[in-house]
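Our platform keeps sequence and structure together, in a single record for each protein. Because each token names a local backbone shape, the row as a whole describes the fold. One such record is reproduced below, unchanged from the form in which we store it:
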Amino acid sequence: MNIVILDGHTTNPGDLPFTEFEKMGNLTVYDYTPDHLTVERCKGADIIIGNKTNMPKEFLENITAKYIGLFSTGYNVVDIETASKLGITVCNVPAYSTNAVAQHTFALILELYNYVGHHSSAVKDGKWNDPAKFCFWDKPLYELTGKTLGIIGMGSIGQKTAEIASAFGMKVIFANRSKKDNLPYPQVSLEELYKTADIISLHCPLTPETTGMINKSAIDLMKKNAIIINTSRGATINEQDLADALNSGRIYGAGVDVLSTEPPKADNPLLTAKNCFITPHIAWAAHETRSRMLSVAVQNVKNYLNGTPTNVVSNP
């Protein structure tokens, strides 16, 4: 049994063992695999594991493996339609990052409401040295209590985010592509959410409907003091429209953990936008979170080999 991990460093930069995969066969781990080497590196592989490595139709048609496992919930890197036609089983790891992503959502919100990093740097730069200043701040500070959080996408992460918001004393509204009657928060239209929310947080999948959904038309409906948080997929935001709104003061701020192209291109407009905090796609990357994900990915392979595949996203 030959197992190839195409981009192991993304999941495991050295703090988690791949021991369980080693027990199942001959394991080859690549830290990173550029697109032009994917087919070559998967020659003779029975099991292929990846995270961010692209697996398009041309790749799938030139491999012999019948199983692809993902170190992720999203599976847009794999051409699922082609995999299904070729009888390739593709399995993901659902819901492993719920707690971590919801936590990171509030890390971004709190940075925009308290500016902890900014004020820490200001203190170290000597701006608190004046003995007449018992305290000082040079950014506006806000309370979360009483603010309205509008959540777009009320899956497991959206619901965990709502739970945390409630603990802060926030009001929660949400928009979702399907009706959800079993939640203690009002479901509203996107238009009403844009108009009402003080903070808009994206937790939706990337689909044709959600691609570029945060654009000038949507932003024009928002409060001037609104902030936008994105821990879902970068392409849900029209980045030029958001940058323009931030630079003009049309909305107050933004915090994003994802961009349309990752790593970002040098000309990404959000890199120079005012009051925009960007983290390098790390909401999912807590040690406990990655350990949980690795355990599920291992179990997915075991279940496949036992004839009872789990978390299958293809249709072989």
